[in-house]
Fold each of these.
Amino acid sequence: MQTQLIIILSVTVALTFVVALVSIGLVIHKAVNAQEIRRRQRLYTHYSEKFAEVLLVDLPPLPSSARTSAIFKQYENLLAPVKKELESLPPVEALLHRKMLRGVLVDFARDLSGDAIDRLIYCFYSLDFVSEQIELLKHKHWWVRAQAARDLGLLRTRRALAALTAALEDPHQDVRDQARQAIASLAGVESLRTILRLTRRMSMWTALELSISVQQYGEETVPYLVEGLDLPDQSVVLFCIEMLAVIGFVSAVDPLRRLAKTYPSITVRAKAIEAMGRLGDQRSEELLVSFLRDPNPALRLKALEALGRIGAPAALPALIPRLEHGTLQEQIAAARAIAATGPTGTDELHRIAATGSKRQRAVCLHVLEERG
Amino acid sequence: MFEWIINSYLLFVVLYFVGVNVSYTVMMILSLREILKYMHHNSFSDYRLTVQSELAVGVSVLAPAYNEEATVVESVRSLLKLNYGHFEVIVINDGSKDRTLRRLIDEFGLIQSNQIYAPEIPSKRVRGIYRSRVASYKNLVIVDKENGGKADALNVGINVAQYELVCVIDADSILEEDALQKVVKPFLEDHRVVAAGGIVRIANGCEVKNGRVVRVGLSTHFLPLFQVVEYFRAFLSGRMAWLNMNALLIISGAFGLFRRQAVIDVGGYRTDTVGEDMEIVVRMHRTFRERRRPYRVIFVPDPVCWTEAPESIRILQRQRNRWHRGLMDVMRFHGKMLFNPRYGAIGMSSMPYYLFIELLGPVFEFIGYIATIMLFVRGTANLDMAILFFIVSLLYGVMFSVGGVLLEEISFRRYPNPKHLVLLLFIGVLENFGYRQLTAWWRIRAFFDYARGQRGWGKMQRKGFRVGT
Amino acid sequence: MNNIILTAEDQQHIRKLIEYKLTNCGYVVVAVEDGVQALEKARELMPALIMLDVMMPQMTGFEVLAALKADERTRSIPVLLVTAQSKEEEVLKGLEMGAEDYITKPFSPNELAARVRKVLLRKGGA
């Protein structure tokens, strides 16, 4: 028993020692780190001020070609002092400086547009960040790869397009997502076709990110979105429908009508109906009314909501009976749709609020109060 | 003969603690891995997207209130300032006997509303719904109902909620501004996610202004300090470990986010237990596994919620008593899942863990102390066993407490001052010599209370937000 | 009328950029990093224009706007809101609350300067 006890005791003492060492180490690290953080902050401020100046200097805009022109010379001159400063530093220092510098450029790229972005892109190339980031796309840690893809996208580095396309096949999900996002920002609106084709099981988060790029391109994306409606992956189809509704291109109603009528999945049909409502096209009215008596409650609800957005006076007779059928949600949507048809509808609601069944009264009062 | 019994028991308890230590170590390693994965995954996320985009889902924040007249207005104001796109704040006045409702009506210009909703979960009678005349409070909803307890109030809130996600908080939870953004993201990334919990941090000693923690600090009283370290161990190195196996059993009532429909699908909160926050999560696991429906319950380690920890022994004792009785309720209701392979990792790993380590742990530990003392009194102390017991229970306990602190330091580092770190490490050691035994004793007493049929809440004192230390 | 412009922006690099750009254009720029300071400075300096970022921690641009319009002294100072892209509701809400104009991020510094000039001209004239 004695020997076993001694072994356990020694192991424990050793472990305690290790833990104590690690603790002390972390405390020291923290104290030192506080200084380190302040230093980084100073560097960041330093570079953000420098580059704010660079971005604002009064120079003619960058030409898109002819890299030997005099204008490029002027831009180079702007960057020369920064480059010299970097070169004069020892390698470890320089690494930190470059990291902060890159952070500044990326942060600016997120919030600026127009001329400023062109300059930022130029700086990014000129300071040799592009090749560095492209290299990082092959790093062994997935988060480094993903960060590189994201930065390349934010800085619209066209030269990285090939490397980013390769990254679409990366083993890690996050890297693929960032690469896709990057390509969407920098390869122009045509890249949307490839991206939609290659995407499988798009999560809402990915849809969110992609939607920002789509919205930036605006109406140019519409043909590609319409194309996307025929893709096999349902999540992509739903995304395309949503984007069409957000962009608000009214002619998109036609393919949506087809989807609402014939697509095999209820989710997609419901979404298409919702989108028709958001696009606000009066021509959809008839189709929407036809869904009011559909056996599927999801479609009925969506049709009622859509009519509520469009405001269809001609549908009033078909809407009033809906106040008595279906779930509470449907009845509320029906009341909203009735109110949306105009003063006649609102009068009707007032009438029912006074004379209808208990449920009808509650529903009408609820909606009337909503409308203020 | 007597000695033989004592020594055998000590042997058993030593082995038990070795088992516990091995589990804790494994959990710490798993937690560390999950935390790092989380941090890397979100390091390049732009959470602002959840606020900016049209596609982001809406959140209904539910705040049950009972006799909170001193603090309710402040709480509601800070909730309304959450940085999120589409959200509503639903305050459920659970039949307060004080002027809680009056204060709200006066402060926010409320009038009775004709709002209707489908009462999908049965509850005590709702007396009325109030909304504000003022445009900037248009996303504030007050529901007045008959008293029915927190769980009942939450059920009403869920009925009234209009958005897809519901956020369940305590009246004295202090949320960070981007709390919703951070905890909503996992729901957007994976449509199977039905529930998400967040880490709860101790606000004692922090500077709180306008319902936000503006400076992180540590309390100058021992009790909250012990709880800080305890929470690190429980939340950071404990809960994260279960994520991978989809076996997370507790989401703190102080802050949780659920898919509204999922809660309705399992029938809402149970109103006959004090552990309703744990019970509903366990029931979700059980129901969805039984129905073979794909689902995930996750945990967001990012510190987003702060709460005031009890500073008096009596209140702390009541809180721990309640938690333990809640745990017993859960075991009683869902005991059939134990060691049942049909329930996967829940049945085979996390339920047994909660039963043998969390629930029964204090009992074994205490009997161990008594046994050791008896040996000494007898004079025939088999020192070996006693020392062994001491090592595996206390010394390792120290290591895990310290480990929790270190885990925090490696990951989120909310305490900026190195002096804080030193203090916390010291507290980590100290925690095991007195505080831990105290809480263990309270938990044992909880068994007796439970056996005697005590199932209620006891009185909790509401102090409101502390400013300064 | 003075040519002081007060800008509230929590992100340091953007704050600097705006400060430099507008200073180059000949204005006197006072840059603060949160809404509380913005209100203080607004009442103290009575600037010709106030630029507010909508997404600021602790006190959003909208809250500042509401406070400015509620206060007699600062009610007539034109406010330019800096909003996030694609948030039409935000824009409408801001204009309804009394903001003079808005600019969305990502923005071009030149465009910003032009907007500022336009607003000042509009207000200066009347």
Note: Chain A is about 75% helix and 0% strand.
Amino acid sequence: MTAVLELRNLDVAYGSVSAVRRLNLEVGHGELVGLIGPNGAGKSTTLHAIMGLVPPAAGDVLFAGQSVRGRTPESIARAGIALVPEGRRIFGELSVEENLRLGLAARRRNGADPLAAAYDLFPMLADFRDRQAGALSGGQQQQLAIGRALVAAPDVLLLDEPSLGLSPTLVDAVFGALTEIRDRGVSILLVEQRAQRTVALADRTYVLANAESRMTLTPADANDTDKMIQAYLA
Amino acid sequence: MILAAVDAQTLVDAIGLGAVYALMAVGIGLVFGVLRLVNFAYGQLVMAGAYTLAFTSGWPVAGGIAACFVVVIALSLAMERAVFRPLRTQSPAVMLVTTFAVAFLLQNIALILDIRDGTIGEPASSLVQLNQVVTIGGVDVRKVTILAVAVAVVALGLLALLLARTTIGLHMRAASADFRTARLLGVRANTVIGVAVLLSGVLAATVAVILTVQFPLVSPDFALRETIVVLVGVVVGGIDRLWTATLGGFAIGFATGVINGALPTDKTVFLPSAVFALVILVLVLRPAGLFARGRAAVVDRV
Amino acid sequence: MRRRADTWVALAAPMLLIVVVGIGATFVSRANQIHFLNALAAVAMVVAIYVFVGTSGVLSFGQISFVALGAFAAGVMTVPVDSKAGVLPDLYPLLRDHTIGNVPSLALAAVVGGVFAFLVGLPLMRLSGLAAGIATFAVLEITHNLLREWTKIGPGATTLSLVPETTGALQPTVGALLVVVVAFAYQHSPLGRKTRATREDPAAAQAVGISVHRQRLWAFTLSGALCGFAGGLLVHMLGSITTEQVYLELTFLTLAMLVVGGVTSLWGAVVGALAVSGLDSLLGNAEDGISVGFTLNLPEGSRLVILGALMALMLILRPSGITGGRELRLPRRRTT
């Protein structure tokens, strides 16, 4: 069975600096795949390349077997890949509901109650629907950002460090939501700095260090401290 | 002392001027919002509309106005395609200078077209009856002033509705705040930009119609002075948000009208210096604009 | 070693070009000489503008106001005393009763430009981007308004005439060379290098202790002085000046020259000024009808259209200009 998202020998550079080198990565249908690594390893760049924000220098990005390389970000979003960006990037001046309605731009099928997906998963959002999004707390904004991406009914959900700046309880909530999303049939690529939690959560986790993919880890490795250290320092 | 010289007549005229400037400010602000580009050539859109009205003087009024709208909208869409789109990745300074060049370009094309009949200036007299005056409560109000204010109120009201209630309006507001994230959510860049440019063209055509009533002789520098003043007003008001830009445009139009009406003519020769000195003062104290809240990311201060 | 040679080439190349144009001016007919002289004046102005816009990276629409001030200062103070009272009746007595020579007037022009730039720059250099563009445009407008209406310091809306002319190419050539040398010296001085640092990365520059405001102020003041000097050259070259000659159209032209040549290099400023001047002269002649193998007769006004189109195209297709924004270097021998 072909993977829903595949990166083949992906090379991304900023000018003469190589940010990602020969990356091979796969996300299967209904899988939750992690991508961890130290700061500056190229994790965010990988997600940006998938979404067409930065052109790959070489290699390919395949979505459901088709190359999406060279397409505009909005056309990739409309094809069924959604990104929850680093720092959430909420529209603070718009209301919660307006933020969610923005997500509808990429939606392919018009369901009966398109915003239900978000409100079901994060009931808090329904309570705050008319509030200005900028007034929400960090954790609530993270839920809004994920909800906004889900409203588009994507096949693949990309997340860029969703746990950044959140307390452990909130991280639990967010990771719990991710499991539920995965169970609903959405494939997930999760970029994170919290290595151990990610490895424990994901079906498989890639380790990216210094622009290259070092190894893959499974939940069984989550408690193997030596292996975790080796992944980061080798 | 100045206030004593300001009578109802001056106030009414000033409000009319403010209304026209507000319409132009919105046209400039809409494009800036989605493209982060100051269109120095905006005045040339108005000029093109005015020339169209002049060249169709023999047509029935509605036909002339329709032609004006068609030409201006076509020109603004062409400008977007040929100039704005290739510049999207450039720095603000490059964009600024390029629209400056386009402004000069268009002005001189108009000069070539105009001068074919041997003189500079073409009359656009189809709507001249709107320059007539009605007396309301002892004040002489030109019909065109009433039209200007009415049109401004309606146009701004419709625009506000569009932005607040429609999907495309939501997309435009999002794109103005954070274009990249909006695109990641599926908002089509070209659509949002196209709509903004279209609307700004409609506004420019409207302004052309209103201005030719008061200034029926159209020359290549038509609306040039007004554009410069509006641009200044928009930046001073705060170009980063549509309502502060509009308010800035209205304010500078209103202020210009009041001062022009209140001061005797021989004292107004140094008026531009006073106004521009004030502009510098405001910009130095509040580079993001008079009505802006705190610091904006668009203008930086060291 | 290579660096040293590069530096000399970077200075020698523009100077050589200027000298060539100056020599050319002495060999052509009277009618065509004005084109060469205009080109030299353009070089002086554009390099002066480059000293600020190119090194600091801040766009300014106001540099021509310093050219205007320099031109009027040099012009008013060199009109012979006996004629002055007649042509400029409202002048302040201090200005009316004194006259200075050619070279002192150039120095005066530079001082006036520099002082005005300094005063204006004190508040303005805190601004960048759009605010700086509008604020410097305001300076242009204020200068234009004052020069046009204040008859106590100049001719106002009428032409300032009877200014002693410097015939021939010597003064414009030497003047242009001087501006280039000063600009070059500034560029390579520690002061100039700090300013360039603020252009590349203002945040990083501030982090290492460079005061962005002060560096820009220095550049602005020097640019103002050089612009004033260029204005003095201009008024003596033409023998007269009006406020409209140093206003919007000249602002557009000089900015176009800088952009077309390449904003970030001295070489770009010189090349742009000469190239666009040349084209401008050619187009001006074509408007009157010239024969270049076939007869070329352009409609009146098309000169600015073509220049405007050229500038727009250059910015769209090659924003770094003809020179790519770099100084001229010795060709490198590839060793691999």
Note: Chains C and A do not touch (no CB pair under 8 Å).
